[in-house]
Structure formats: structure tokens, C-alpha cells
Amino acid sequence: MRLLGRDEWGADPALPRRGHQIGASYRTEVIIHHTATVDGKGAPNEWGTLEAVKLRMRRLQTARPDLGLDVPYNMVAFCMRDGDLVVCEGRGLNRTGAHTRDRNRTALGIAFYGDFEAGPAPRYFDRQLRALASWLRTLRNELGFARLGYSRPADRQVWGHREIRSARTLCPGEALQDRLLQIRFIDEEDDTAMDRSTWKLVQKALQSQEPPLYAGKRIDGLPGGNTNIAVRAFERRVGLESRGVIGERNNPNASIWPATRELLFSTAAGVLGS
């Protein structure tokens, strides 16, 4: 995989860079898009040269003036005909985007250039998706984006744009949506951790104490270090296993799904009151 910064693809310096600075720790999700751009030359959704990539990035800088004269996505991916993946800096990893309503602060918006609803998947698409996943894993494990993927669908590690409640779109296109399962960047140990909604439920139960203390730490309602310590201590105390399972990990009847999470809250309140 190759990365191209804004200087490398030739961002117009006369146009102000959009978005606001944001720390890596605020990024909790990855949302995948396509640009829905149809190109009539060569194989659809594939690109032959870096010059072609750079030209299209410069076009993206002015393609959506309603969103500001800048690339609306944080990063833009190009599937090359030789099987490589080129990822270009849009607004950047540490700036808010203009790609998904209500998610531009927390989400890393990555768009694949092309139309993946009307056009077919590239020839080496699976390999290119795995390359993207490897890069995201590096961001998460080595470059400070430790909470990336904290918010994710139940069966995958990235969102398709169409899955976001505020979106009314076919984005990222059927050919891409069907393959999102392949973008796996969270290590197995973290992937089987308690899901966010169950985690918030346990946190609420812990906060119901007066004073809101657990394992010697104050719970302030924020997903910080002290709250993590408290939640993990609670998990150990009530025998809570992976992804909201109480007791035997392999017993599907023990899973805590949305309809039965109130049971978990009652269990938590009972433990805390004892």
C-alpha cells in the first residue's frame, strides 16, 4: 500500500484546508464510502498510474463546493490495476471531515474512488481491502488511534455509509458493502471485548453508587482510564465474559442482546447493592 500526502498529489494551496484539528483518541469508528464517480476510461474502479490518481484527487478538492472547497473525506483509496492500493490524504487523519452527518468528529471517513454501485469490483479487490485493514491496524496499535473501532456493527469492524442512521444513500455501493467484512483491523482479544452498548449499561450501574466509586476509582461518566478499570473489575466480579456473555462463553442462550440487557442492569445493581 502506498500513501500520498496532500503535497504529493498537488492540493491547491490557494484553497484553505478545511476541518478542525482533532486528537487521535476521539476517533472511535471507521466509515467506508465511495465517491460515486464514473470514469469512462479503462477498467471501471481501477487506475493505471499515479498521475491519474493525483488528477482525480485535485478534482475532488472542488467537486463538492456545498461541503467546502476541499476533499470531504479524511482519506481516499484508489485500487490500482496492478493490485496495489494507493491511499491519499484528504482532510487528513487528525481533522474533522464532511462525509457523514453527525459523525465527522468521531469517524474516520475513507472513500474508495469510483462507483461501486454501478461498476464491478476491481480484480484484486480482496487483497486491496486486506492492505487497508493492515494500515488501519497500524493506526490503532502503533499510532495512537487506540479507540478506533470502539463503535462498530455487531458482525464487522467498519461501517458502510448507508448503515448510519442519518444517511439516506446507497453509498458505498453494493460491490463494496458486500466486502466490508474483510476490513478487519482489531485484534481478536479486543474484538471479543464487551460491546459498547453493554459496556455503557454496566457503566450506568456503576455510576448509580453513592459515591460513584468502584475498585478504588471514581467513575465520572467518561470512557477514560478509571471507567475502564471499574468496568473490568465488574466483569471479573460477576463472571461476565466476552461481548456481554455471562457464564459459559459458548452458551448462546447466555448472550446479552438488546432485548435482555435490562437483566444485566438488574444483575449489576444487585451486585453493587450487596
Helix content: 25-40%
The low-confidence runs, each spanning 5 or more residues with pLDDT under 50, are: 241-269
- Overall geometry comes to globular
* Number of E-state strands: 10
Going by helix content, strand content and strand pairing, the class is alpha/beta
Radius of gyration, in Å, reads: 21 Å
Share of residues in strands = 5-15%
Give an account of the 3D structure.
The structure is a single chain. Helices cover 30% and strands 13% of the residues. With 274 residues, it is an alpha/beta fold. It has 2 domains: 2-188, Lysozyme-like (3-Layer(aba) Sandwich); 192-273, no CATH class. The chain has a 6-stranded mixed β-sheet with strand order 1-4-3-5-2-6. Strands 7-8 form a two-stranded antiparallel ribbon. Strand 9 and strand 10 form a beta hairpin. The protein is globular. Residues 241-269 have low confidence and may be disordered.
